[in-house]
From TrEMBL:
SUPFAM superfamilies: lambda repressor-like DNA-binding domains (SSF47413)
Designated name of the protein: Helix-turn-helix domain-containing protein
Matches recorded under InterPro entries: Cro/C1-type_HTH, DUF5753, Lambda_DNA-bd_dom_sf
Signal peptide positions on this chain: none
Residue ranges occupied by any HTH cro/C1-type domain in the UniProt entry: 22-76
Pfam families: DUF5753, HTH_31
């Protein structure tokens, strides 16, 4: 079984890096494209186009390759980076994606949208389309975002605590049924042993993170990094003193938020207040 490579923020264009990694893994294992077709079920031309950079394939194909090569989620992480145009993935965000894939603990505060790790397909589709994406680019970005949900699944999934501003729950989708699915998905996610959901009501007033989405990632070496994002820019914070200050602010916000049971009741009330589905 090949050892997992360390994914670094190389200057190499993500799409090319993905293709080169696919070719290298296949040659190391001694597989031909035809053998991949027989073993995994997709055509040899599919794998050939992926290795040649003409296609990125689907997340299902990439996950099957990760399993085949014993590379855990390395290829899926590279695929996520390659899905978008390189100019949309600044070096800091590429490093963040690497840290997220390796994190052993996550904490997040969300200002206006459910965390990407907890978004349904329908939510991701409407949100990304609202940003101007269309066609194949839109489909690929939706796949890239929703495939990240697998990080929180399985017996070895890291613990994830998220604080949702009430604004997240008030800014509904245009599609009422998809919005219902999203709220139900939040409730279902909160029932998993590794996921904790808090709601921060408007009535708690101003606080130190009210304009900034913030994610903390605890890494295998015991260090913690943070990623902050607003309407203008995102920033990866690695300096320990800054991370500590941010985390203290996060702790204050967590103390203001509803506890998990109260938060569940809050979301349930919002579901009950949604218009009933029309009878057929």
């Amino acid at each position: 079984m090949p050892s997992r490579r360390v994914i670094t923020g190389r200057s190499q264009e993500p799409r090319r890096r993905f293709a080169e990694e696919l070719r290298l893994l296949r040659t190391e294992k001694g597989d031909s494209l035809r053998q991949l077709e027989v073993v995994l079920g997709w055509s040899a031309s599919t794998f050939g186009k992926m290795e040649g950079g003409q296609s990125l394939g689907s997340p299902e194909v990439v996950e099957a390759l990760d399993q085949h090569y014993g590379t855990k989620s390395m290829l899926l992480t590279l695929w996520e980076l390659a899905v978008g145009d390189p100019s949309q993935f600044k070096e800091q965000y590429r490093r963040y994606m690497t840290f997220e894939a390796e994190a052993v603990g996550l904490w997040q505060y969300s200002v206006s949208a459910p965390p990407g790790l907890l978004q349904t397909d329908g939510y991701a589709l409407e949100a990304l389309a609202a940003g101007g994406l269309k066609g194949e680019e839109l489909n690929q970005q939706v796949q890239a975002r929703t495939s990240r949900r697998k990080l929180l699944e399985g017996e070895e999934a890291p613990p994830f605590r998220v604080i949702l501003s009430e604004a997240v729950l008030r800014m509904s989708l245009c599609d009422a049924q998809e919005w219902r699915f999203q709220l139900e998905h939040l409730l279902e996610a909160a029932e998993r042993p590794n996921i904790t959901v808090h709601v921060l009501p408007f009535g708690t007033g101003p606080h130190g993170l009210m304009n900034t989405d913030t994610m903390f990632l605890r890494l295998l070496d015991g260090t913690t990094v943070a990623y902050t994002e607003n309407d203008v820019r995102g920033e990866l914070v690695e300096e320990s003193s800054r991370v500590e200050r941010l985390h203290r602010t996060y702790d204050v916000v967590r103390d203001l938020a509803l506890n998990p049971a109260e938060s569940r009741s809050f979301i349930l009330r919002m579901l009950e207040d949604l218009p009933c589905e029309p009878s057929t």
